[in-house]
Amino acid sequence: MSSGSSLIGFWRSMHPVRALDGTHLKGRFRGTMFVATAQDENEQFYPIAFGYGDSEKNLSYEWFLDCLKGALGHINDLVFISDRHASIEAEILKVFPHATHTICCWNFSKNIKKQFYRKDVIAIMDKTATSFTELKYNQHMEE
To answer: Where is the MULE transposase domain (predicted)?
Structure first.
């Protein structure tokens, strides 16, 4: 579901980057709530659409992304940021074949911290993730 005011605000001032995630509902109603957000010119999060599915699986993500595409239409240079959930990436590429998908640095950082307890590894990951050029990225990866 996407409200008219959310879509108007989106078209007027949003960056072409979307954050996409799902969260498990464990109360009276079970399932997964999906949400798509963007950032405005002040880098504040702006809700674009949300939906409810029976699970965090491919069909549920496909349904949500189809609805999102119907609301937004075609957007050049569209980028999606999400966690590393396999269903998200597969369905983004299916529904938005020309979009770019990337992993959220915060989620990636949490995964690194679980695997490597050394602060030097985490510092290198932070520098690599925030590199603005391919040269700097490769230099940090060599560390």
So the answer is: 19-111
